[in-house]
Amino acid sequence: MTVEITEGAKISIGFDGQRCIHARRCVTGEPSVFRANVEGPWIDADGATADEILTVALNCPSGAITVRRKDGGNEEHAPKTNKILVRENGPLAVNAEVIIDGHGEMLRATLCRCGLSQNKPFCDNSHIKGGFTATGEPASKDSKLAISELVGPVTIAPQPNG
pTM (2 decimals)? Predict the structure, then answer.
């Protein structure tokens, strides 16, 4: 599937349905922009300010929603430190300057850890129907990494069912 682009006066919104995990942060964050269960176009790029739409994009865990500003305002950028969160009974949520072999560069992604996704390495919510259970928090341990080691590109090489 290709990325669907919706143009507004001050912002372009990209939506990649292949990466969407239906967290619904878009429709609950800006329902005037991301309209659920409507016939016809469901994204209105002029339904909120560019800053409000950027905030929604930044809260999209899968990276399915991206924006390109036309007004010279703030753009999405890599986080100050890389973050990979383990979701309880679900995927890995990545927020970093990440390069996924075969999928290119991105700043946000939700990656399958149950092995059931039909869209690997990305999560497609198959863990729900499959009854996948796993803790969301790794055990605490002392870290010897300096904050300066938690920045920069992360390269991910997906393995079959890995």
Answer: 0.82
| Secondary element (H or E) of residue 12 | strand 11-15
Low-confidence ranges of the chain (pLDDT < 70): 1, 161-162
The CB-based long-range contact list for 133-141 (8 Å cut-off, 24+ gap) reads: 133/89, 134/86, 134/88, 134/89, 135/86, 135/88, 136/86, 136/87, 136/88, 136/89, 136/90, 137/86, 137/88, 138/86
CATH superfamily of 83-137+145-156: CDGSH iron-sulfur domain, mitoNEET-type (3.40.5.90)
95 neighbors 83 (Cβ within 8 angstroms): yes
The yes/no answer on whether domain 4-69 falls in CATH 3.90.830.10 is: no
